[in-house]
Amino acid sequence: MRVFVTGASGWIGSAVVPELLGAGHDVVGLARSDGSASALDAAGASVVRGTLDDLDVLAKTAQESDGVMHLAFKHDLAFSGDFVGAGLADRVAVETFGDALAGTDKPLVIASGLLGLAQGRLATEADGHDAADMGLHGDGPSARHATAEFTLQLADRGVRSSVLRLPPTVHGRGDTGFIASLVGLARAHGVAGYLGDGTIHWPAVHRDDAALLFRLAVEQAPAGTTLHGAAEEGVPLGEVAAEIGRQLDLPVRAVPDAEAEDHFLWLGTFVGLDTLASSDVTRRTFGWEPTRPGLLDDLAAGRYTDDPA
Fold it and tell me: Nearest-CA neighbor of 32 among 13, 52, 12?
């Protein structure tokens, strides 16, 4: 299978590409920079130059491929505070792929999120499909959920569409996302902080386990399928802060609500979203069995704290 991958040189994509190649697939990666193009070429993938805004490039490459895996997202735009802009760009890209693949029964797999899906209870693959609750113009989580629902509806247009919902913590050495940001904030403030009583949860998955599930999805997922990439249903953020404190030799404390914005900055939108997520249906359906270290294990091994750079 010739698979077109956006975000192919990113944190998750750089694990997905070798996973696909190792299984005998050809990969075409979207590259917006010379560095990304070089990395993809070195990995053994073909390269097409462009960005998510180059809709003609997206459409043409999708039509020339046997399937599409959409991993790219304008995280830099979202993390600067423009969640709406990032969400709209993502939606337009998915609409472009839907038009290009309509009537072909080719697979389209997109990455989405678990965060905020069903606060205070265990979310399953059956949750989050009420379109009335989705807000494309809302915050980061709600906009991505809305685009995910649109993707699933492409099954009615002859696209083998599926959505792989990921935890906020797709972890491992080299991660620069949410957990790395919490480590950076702890260093900056001299304290490892958490909200409330420390029992707010985030699900988690190692990057390599997520890459395997993406491959299984593009190979096997029936049209309209939702998959959950949660290796751990929910890791308490109080325990995350405690491990960060141990690794950095810093005090650990609860951050009062009144100080949350100053302490967590842009992460304040996310650290209060208590999210537990099951992947039982995904595991049974696709035989997915995560084998990599858990989030706290990665923290304890120093994978986020042994190199201040």
Answer: 52
- pLDDT tens digits for 91-110? 999 999 999 999 999 999 99
Q: How far is CA 174 from CA 14, 51, 267, 305, in A?
A: 11, 23, 19, 11
Tally Cβ neighbours within 10 Å of residue 137.
11
Q: From CA 142, how far away is CA 148, in angstroms rounded?
A: 10
Nearest 5°: CA angle at 68, between 66 and 71? 160
Q: What is the DSSP string of 169-202?
A: EEESTT--SHHHHHHHHHHHHTSEEEETTS--EE
| Nearest partner of 152 among 204, 75, 221, judged by Cα | 221
- Residue 9: both structure tokens together: 């040189």
pLDDT attached to residue 119: 74
Handedness of CA 213, 218, 222, 226 (dihedral sign): positive
Q: Per the structure block, which two tokens stand in for 168?
A: 């906020």
The long-range contacts involving 90-95, CB below 8 angstroms and separated by at least 24 positions, are 90/52, 90/143, 90/144, 90/147, 91/136, 91/143, 91/146, 91/147, 91/150, 92/52, 92/55, 93/6, 93/52, 93/55, 93/58, 94/70, 94/147, 94/150, 94/151, 95/150
CA distance 218 to 98: 15
**DSSP three-state, residue 150:** helix
| Type of residue numbered 91 | R
Residues 247, 250, 251: CA angle, nearest 5 degrees: 125
What is the C-alpha to C-alpha distance for residues 121 and 144, in angstroms, rounded to an integer?
20
Question: Any residues with CB less than 8 A from the CB of 187 and at least 6 apart, and which?
Answer: 248, 250, 308
Q: Are strands 201-206 and 232-236 parallel, antiparallel or unpaired?
A: antiparallel
> 90: which 2 tokens?
């993502």
3-class DSSP state of 62: helix
Reported as a single tens digit per residue, the pLDDT across 263-284 is 999 899 889 999 999 999 999 9
Beta strand residue intervals within the chain, DSSP E: 2-6, 26-31, 46-49, 67-70, 107-113, 122-123, 160-166, 169-171, 192-195, 201-206, 225-228, 232-236, 252-255, 276-277
